[in-house]
Fold each of these.
Amino acid sequence: MLIMKNLLIAILIFSPGIIFAQAFKVEKVVGNVKVQIGASEKWDQVKSGEILNANSTITTGAKSTVLLTGNNFTFVLKETSALPLANLKKMSLDQLILALAMQDMINAPRKKEEANSKNTAVYGAEINGIKEPFVVSSNFGIKRLNGAVQLAESGFKESAIVVAKDTFRKYPEASTIPSFRIYFANLLAGLNLNEEAYDDFKKIESLKLSQNQKSEVDEKLDLLSKKLMKD
């Protein structure tokens, strides 16, 4: 019974379309910004002053941004990014752990795909020693990962991890980009979820890494291994 209760809680947390109560006001739109409501396949242009609920997903084109306000916060989604608004919320560490457990249960083995060679990775500033990846691509999964990074930058780290994990599952090609995988594994380590971070870095080992990335992954695995041995 307890397992079923925890599973139900995890489903409620993890499923972005379940909680619609919070509303978001569109304060400013620059360029091409679109929204998809619920299960609709239609994308509509977003307008300044519009009110969107959490059952919405927004996406931005090149050189486009949108400024949203919610319950005591503002958030800017930058260019070539996407975000389910249900994930624009604060989560506790316990809620994150339940969401990760749910992800493990529904994650199935899948065929690996090569990342699109046209994707171009660039980096912004470092926050707490972690490089922020940004990949220019029209691939929707990669745009979601760009949005997840921006969630983390804005203080929604737990929600950002949930978005990333869900995106890696739904868009396998996006999961092959080392810069994103390393970034979110580092976020897990920063939240002291050492076992989860270690598992992620072990999976990252099998990706096509640059020498610098390989050195970073080896270093993090060694550090996390020592921490886990002390626990």
Amino acid sequence: MKKIFLLFVITMMSISVNAQKDVKEGVITMKMSMFSDNPQVNASLSMMGDMALTVYFKGNKSRSEMSNPMTGENTTIVDNDVKKIMVMMNNPTMGKKYKIKPIEVSEEDLKNVTITDKSESKTILGYNCKGYDVVVKKDDKEVKMTMFVTDKINAPTQNSAMFGDKLKGYPLSMEIAMEQMGMPMVIKMDVTKIEETSVADAKFDMSVPEGYEEIEDKK
């Protein structure tokens, strides 16, 4: 019995040590769900159900892929080496669209981002995550986020691009409260799996696929 208990302790220590090491390349699997206080909006969102999001990351680059019968295929590539973000949509209604835009964060943009330490932490998949409340103001509207971030993964995201140096690390749990077309909406994202593995450079290629049209800027 003592040997079994000792083996259990050693195994758990090994899991803890492995989970807490820095991961610089791999694949993250997330679950995303959306809901609203508005009954009509919530009914529409519930039809979509939970959505799976797969994130490939390597150094200063990441690629997020999500597919859903209602929204189609959505891919986002973030490259902090060249400071660009590429968004691709294969939507049942809009068709195949893409947009490449620079990552530009001005001092004025940073003034519109408020990050508050929640003085709270959670252990998620073996990673110690610090809690933060984030408020982003834009066009007289606010987007409020609550996130629990690990400093062991530094994969870039669309959100981290607008935070500058104010917040580092990767959120393993995040809740976003916002308005979409005047309707309240909450997006909840939780990481369900982290796999340390090699990722091909081709995943972060920003070449425009055949058949995609550029999304024009609104005038």
